[in-house]
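Morning. Coffee machine broken again, so started the prediction first thing and wrote up yesterday's gels while waiting. Chain of 226 residues, entered below exactly as on the submission form.
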Amino acid sequence: MEGLLKLKRRHFNVLASALCALAAAGSSGFTHAQATASADPLILVVGDSLSAEYGLKRGTGWVALLDERLKQEKVRARVVNASISGDTTSGGRSRIAPLLKQHQPALVVIELGGNDALRGLPLNMTRENLATMARLSREAGAKVLLLGMEMPPNYGAKYGQEFREVFTTVAKAEKTALVPFFLKGVADTKDPTALFQADRIHPNESAQATMRDNVWPELRRLLAAR
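Came back before lunch.
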């Protein structure tokens, strides 16, 4: 009986050792896979309805198309879309610190400012908010891509010029990359309503690829420079 108990104990110890080794190997493999995924640079998009797929079928907006382009081009990067319809630069400024802490992005795309103008908010406030977002992002170790906007002609040439300069001024002061006009090829066509939804404010699904393509060259350059 004693010999049988020793034999069972020895078999148990061998089995336990094998299970521990298997568990350790499995754990190491899982951890490595996680580490590989988390090592891919993360692109954080902080925007308004233009980036939040307002009025569009989910998965058809320019941010989703950007994610598809990254996969097609075999660029190792992940995209997190933190855009909120109706958001202003003040909203973005209040959200940026926790977003940076949560996602630890390698690149932050800031697409805000249009709603500030539509609400008649002071341009110096818009400029300060964008500059703060860019600075906090850089201090967190992220590169920054600012997407510029322009106002329709009915806002007046002077205001249009001043609004345009908000983005160029911030980009220069904070040393960020800039897409001068995010809606180039969408809002400045011969028929400015053709690529917009019925509200004439939000680009339709047909415009999203153009918007993605406006962002892609600068974004690709920033990723390649890491």
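The two ends are 68 Å apart (CA to CA). Going to sketch it on the whiteboard this afternoon.
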